[in-house]
Design brief:
four-stranded mixed β-sheet, 46% helix, binds alpha-D-glucopyranose
């Protein structure tokens, strides 16, 4: 009994529901839209949904929120989609799950929502990630790529240009920290908690050294992992608390003015520029650094909209997905929430660029961003890799040991059909 009550409490706090719709009794059709908590003003999406409702009398769209953390959302969806009785009609999925959900038969094909010609206007990476065995199972909603934020004012004060390489970043951060003598100031913050965000950081660092986690040159891979650990242990530019940090906690530290450099997704930009932000007007954004001789290698991220196979509202949900990914809605989401549109034409839209000039610089970064392996087994791979990378970050495992374990496990998971070499190329 008590355990039951605790379970209910846990479910409601962990996967807490927020209903944004109004007047359930008047509605003849209810669509439940499940998605992670978006950063920024939650009213923007609610307003859009109300617009859609007004065009469809009798329709009620109920938003139910999940925590922002990708792994926790995955856990919820895997639990609820398996068995074909999902208590929702529309869901926002991380770009890395579409293959898995499609293969499991959890989500329905959406080919008619986006014709092949229309797909050409989208970034190709997310479309590829959403396509399983030739059919489109999700429609990209917004797109992400890792970028480096820096404090322009601090670099200027110490006479430095923004760094292009990781060693340069470490050197500049050390010198600025020495010069500032501010015990609260961190040199470089990134997502070091054991979760998908850490996977992205590790991939970006290793790929920008010409290698990868599960394949490619082993020495360079060890070197990349060692660099991550050394930002904390040797260079002293990254606080130990980074080993527990996610996107929002790093944004908070940087946003309060307590960090010189930050790795994050582009969403943070508009929040850092908001009125009242301590760092407003003092921040620059550039591509992530690389190791000397290699190129910046941001990971492709982003979210998509999908429909559970068992939804009883298929027609209206398809229409809603089409509305939420239409050029107008994408424009509004980019304008008001600062999320990057998936439709490429918007990156030359004057009215948007006027308010969000950063989009112009982001375009080549987003276009060149490298996906995580597009495979139904990605989550298994990620869950096997995360604890090992995390153990290196906190100094419990050597990079060599961790890499040995990672490569063995990934090989096991992927079996003979999909070799690690193929993962590396995807
Ligand atoms: C962002 C990205 C997503 C990624 C996640 C990791 O939400 O859009 O693709 O998996 O961060 O934390």
């Amino acid at each position: 009994m008590i355990i039951g009550a605790f379970f209910l409490l846990w479910v409601s706090t962990t996967f807490g529901c927020t209903q944004a719709g109004e007047g359930t009794d008047r509605a003849s059709t209810t669509v439940v839209f499940k998605h992670g908590k978006l950063s920024g003003d939650g009213r923007v999406l609610s307003d859009l949904l109300r617009d859609f409702e007004r065009r469809h009398p009798g329709l009620l769209i109920r938003e139910e929120l999940l925590p922002a953390d990708s792994d926790r959302q995955h856990q919820y969806y895997a639990m609820n989609l398996d068995g074909g009785k999902a208590p929702f009609d529309l869901l926002a999925i991380d770009t890395i799950w579409a293959q898995e959900f499609a293969k499991a038969g959890w989500i329905a094909p959406l080919d008619e929502v986006l014709t092949p010609t229309e797909r050409e206007d989208f970034f190709p990476g997310p479309i590829e990630a959403a396509t399983f065995q030739g059919r489109l199972y999700a429609v990209p909603w917004y797109v992400d790529a890792g970028v480096l934020y820096y404090r322009r004012d601090l670099l200027d004060r110490h006479g430095f240009e923004p760094p292009h390489t990781w060693p340069e970043l470490a050197r500049i951060a050390k010198l600025v920290l020495d010069g500032e003598q501010d015990s609260k100031l961190a040199g470089f913050v990134w997502q070091g908690k054991q979760y998908e965000g850490l996977m992205c950081v590790a991939l970006e660092v290793l790929r920008s050294n010409g290698t990868d986690l599960w394949s490619g040159d082993r020495d360079r891979a060890e070197y990349g992992l060692r660099f991550l650990r050394e930002t904390i242990a040797t260079h002293g530019i990254t606080p130990l608390s980074t080993s527990m940090a996610d996107e929002e906690s790093t944004r908070w530290i940087f946003g309060e003015g307590h960090a010189l450099f930050m790795r994050n997704w582009p969403y943070a930009w508009s929040m850092l520029q908001q009125e009242g932000s301590p760092v407003r007007g003092k921040v620059g954004v550039i591509p992530l650094p690389a190791f000397p001789g290699f190129r910046s290698a941001p990971v492709l991220g982003g979210w998509m909209l999908a429909m559970p196979n068992n939804s009883t509202q298929q027609e209206i949900v398809r229409e809603l997905i089409s509305f939420l990914t239409s050029p107008d809605t994408q424009h509004r989401i980019a304008m008001e929430l600062g999320y990057n549109p998936v439709r490429r034409a918007l990156y030359t839209d004057e009215s948007l660029l006027e308010l969000r000039p950063l989009l112009k610089d982001l375009y080549p970064i987003l276009l060149g961003a490298k996906p995580r392996p597009v495979t139904p087994y990605y989550l298994l791979v990620s869950q096997a890799v995360q604890p090992e990378v995390s153990a290196v970050v906190v100094g419990r495992r050597s990079p060599a040991e961790a890499l040995g374990i990672i490569r063995r496990r990934v090989e096991q998971i992927m079996g003979e059909q999909t070799s690690p070499a193929r993962l590396g190329r995807s």
